[in-house]
Amino acid sequence: MELMSSGKVWDLAVVDPPYGIGAENHAGKQENGWTQWKQKEWDKATPNKQYFDELFRVSKNQIIWGGNYMTDNLNPSMGWIIWDKGQRDFSLADGEMAWRSFQKAMRSRMYFTLF
After folding, report:
1. Which 8-state DSSP code applies to residue 31?
2. Across the strands, what pairs with 109?
3. What is the DSSP string of 33-69?
4. Please, which pLDDT band fits residue 79 given cuts at 50, 70 and 90?
5. Which of 107, 100, 112, 98 shows the shortest CA–CA distance to 16?
6. Is the dihedral of CA 52, 53, 56, 57 positive or negative?
7. CA–CA distance from 102 to each of 11, 12, 29, 67, 75 (Å)?
8. Does the predicted TM-score (pTM) go above 0.90?
9. Overall number of domains in the chain
10. I need a labelling partner for 58 at 20 to 30 A (CA). Which of 16, 17, 51, 115 fits?
11. What is the mean pLDDT of the chain?
12. Residue 25 covered by a domain
């Protein structure tokens, strides 16, 4: 927080904060069977109101992955992004949701390509 700038200098902030789902208590499917994840502390809680206040203060627009877990700190939005991973049993979820500040129609994508 202390490293954030003093005004709306960023046109877009794309963030993927902890979802607060306690990921350390889950198992994941591997090619050769199921495996337990090691105990971690990073996913015990979602960011607090101060985090979101600062994020909105320094950025004009936002895309927040996992926003469906943080709606208590986000305004209603019609602009959700739905990422359908296209691979069933790939992880604990078939897709991910991102809240976005743009008030435009929801979009769904089968996958993303990173270069």
Report:
1. T
2. 83
3. EEEEPPP-STTSS---HHHHHHHHHHEEEEEEETGGG
4. confident
5. 98
6. negative
7. 12, 10, 35, 14, 11
8. no
9. 1
10. 115
11. 78
12. no
